[in-house]
Each structure stands twice: as C-alpha cells, then as structure tokens.
C-alpha cells in the first residue's frame, strides 16, 4: 500500500518504519519537508505525501488534526484515514467528528492510539490492538496492524472510536501501576 504518514515523531516514525519494513510504500508528510525519515522513506510536504496515497496516518498532536484536515480535507477523499492522534484532556480523544466534517469522503479508522509507541516498535508476543473502522477502512487497517506484529481486534465501525478510546486511561493506569513500564499491551481471550 502507498501510505502517507503525517508526522515523523514517535508514532509516525515508528509506524512508518515498521510498514516500510513490511514492504509498504511510505512517504512522510511534514511541515519541514526534504530528505529522508525513519527507514529512509522520503519526507515530503503533506500535500505531496497525500498525492497518490491509499492510506493517510494522522500522527500529529491532537490539536493539530483540525489544521491538517482543514487544509488537506479534499485530498483525504477516498483514502483510509487512520486517526492515531489523541486530544488529551478533551471530552473526546479522537478526531472523528473533525475528520467527518472536513473530509467527508474519507474512510475513517481509529487505531494505534491506545498503546505506547514502544509496543509498535517491538510488540509483546500475542498482543492485540483494538480498533474501530468504517467498512471501507477495515481491511487496510487490519493489514497494517498485522504488519507491525499485533493481532487486530475489531470493536465496531467509526462510531465505536470512543469505545476504543476507553482503553487509553486504562493503559496509562496500568503503566503507572507497573512502575512506568510502557511496554505493556492487551490481549483478548475468547
Ligand atoms: N507517543 C506515543 O506513545 C503515542 C501513542 C499513541 C498515540 N499517540 C498520539 O500520536 C500523536 C503523535 O504523537 P508522537 O508521540 O508521535 O508526537 P511527536 O513525537 O511529538 O511527533 C509529532 C509530529 O507531528 C508533527 N506536527 C506537529 N504539529 C503539526 C502541525 N500543525 N502540522 C503538521 N505536523 C505537525 C511534528 O512535526 P514538527 O517536527 O514539524 O513539529 C512531529 O513530526 C499524538 O496525537 C499522540 O497523542 C502517541
């Protein structure tokens, strides 16, 4: 898949690296373009990264999502948009409403937001990643979760983003109770 990873930090850089290693075609979208990012993938403007991409990963600070979507909303139409950003301290941690309003043609997925980046760089054996996605976004999101070495667990369509986000305070609480060990993930036993 051709993936535009918007953000080159902990999340964008780690996922970009893992997806490139799995054979996907990753281009980073950044404010300061030029050169290469993690795994040697090119760093382009956000507009150039989105051009021709099938998937857009939003890995910018929560408050910056509105700015990215406000500027690039039309370019997100028809793409799988994976919202990994957390609006910390807000009533709603996800940006589903912002993306639905600014990019109504996007296929929304909520994923990669409930575990620390360390678990994407080096996933604990047998760990799951819970996600929500529109039907059109589900197959690509599942494939990209597997590509980092986690097993996807589908929670529901985009309306279930808030349910996925419920894991966020749980993860932080368990990390705190583990003496700050961020390499901590979840497993569903059926
Ligand atoms: N860290 C984690 O373990 C973790 C886990 C799950 C979810 N998340 C979420 O993932 C998102 C990214 O976290 P992170 O830890 O990767 O942050 P980070 O390391 O600080 O990286 C943030 C990236 O976003 C870019 N950025 C900031 N403002 C921007 C804007 N207005 N327009 C375009 N790009 C912008 C930054 O680029 P510049 O260099 O230009 O500033 C940087 O590349 C956050 O929403 C966070 O809540 C983080």
What does it look like?
The structure is a single chain. This protein is of the alpha/beta class and 190 residues long. It has a single domain, classed as Rossmann fold, CATH 3.40.50. 33% of the residues lie in helices and 19% in strands. It contains eight helices and eight strands; from the N terminus they run βαββαβαβαβαβαβαα. It has helices at residues 10-21, 46-50, 65-72, 96-102, 118-121, 138-147, 161-165, 167-177, and strands at 2-6, 25-29, 43-44, 55-58, 80-83, 107-110, 128-133, 151-156. The chain has an eight-stranded mixed beta sheet with strand order 3-2-1-4-5-6-7-8, sandwiched between helices. β1, α1 and β2 form a beta-alpha-beta unit. The relative contact order is 0.14. Bound molecules: NADP nicotinamide-adenine-dinucleotide phosphate. NADP nicotinamide-adenine-dinucleotide phosphate binds at residues 7-12, 30-32, 59-62, 64, 67-68, 84-86, 113, 116-117.
Write the layout of secondary structure elements.
Layout: E1 2-6, H1 10-21, E2 25-29, E3 43-44, H2 46-50, E4 55-58, H3 65-72, E5 80-83, H4 96-102, E6 107-110, H5 118-121, E7 128-133, H6 138-147, E8 151-156, H7 161-165, H8 167-177
Parallel strand pairs: 1-2, 1-4, 2-3, 4-5, 5-6, 7-8
Antiparallel strand pairs: 6-7
The protein binds NADP nicotinamide-adenine-dinucleotide phosphate (NAP).
Residues 7-12, 30-32, 59-62, 64, 67-68, 84-86, 113, 116-117 line the site of NADP nicotinamide-adenine-dinucleotide phosphate (NAP).
